[in-house]
Amino acid sequence: MRNLLAGLAVALSAACSGGAFAADEASQEAFNNNCRTCHSWKKGDNRLGPSLHGVVGRKAGSAEGFAFSETLKKSSVTWDEGSLDKFIANPDGFIPSNNMKPFTGIADAGTRKQIIDFLKSNPE
């Protein structure tokens, strides 16, 4: 009986960790498919857009080494789940004149959540 319980515990642990891996993989895929053309998640790796490493909790327009629009720099936004969701859904609707052209937003809430989950997994 003890061996059976130990075996079940190992199987359950493997199943749970596999599910967590799949969620992380799906979140990274959502980021890659929608953001990676212009943004990196690696610290200090600014491209056409700023690095999004550690973006959650950071004031908008404050990442070092990137030339942000004045509108973004002067906004009072600090990036959290809610503000990121609104911005990813409709950048110009949330912070007008933000230089995210030609990106116009992602309508699908599930995809936005996956991207935000990925960004949250990459703290400063």
Topology readout:
Blueprint: H1 2-34, H2 70-74, H3 81-89, H4 91-94, H5 109-120
Helix pairs in contact: 1-5, 3-5
* Tally of helical segments: 5
Average of pLDDT: 84
At the fold tier of CATH, the topology name is Cytochrome Bc1 Complex, Chain D, domain 2
Looking at CATH, the homologous superfamily is Cytochrome c-like domain
Beta-strand content estimate: under 5%
Order of helices and strands: HHHHH
Helix content: 40-55%
* Secondary structural class: mainly alpha
Shape: globular
CATH class category name: Mainly Alpha
State the separation between the terminal residues, measured CA to CA: 46 Å
Low-confidence stretches: 1-21
Sheet of most strands: none
The rounded Rg comes to 18 Å
Number of domains: 1
Report the strand count: 0
User: Mind telling me which CATH architecture this is?
Assistant: Orthogonal Bundle
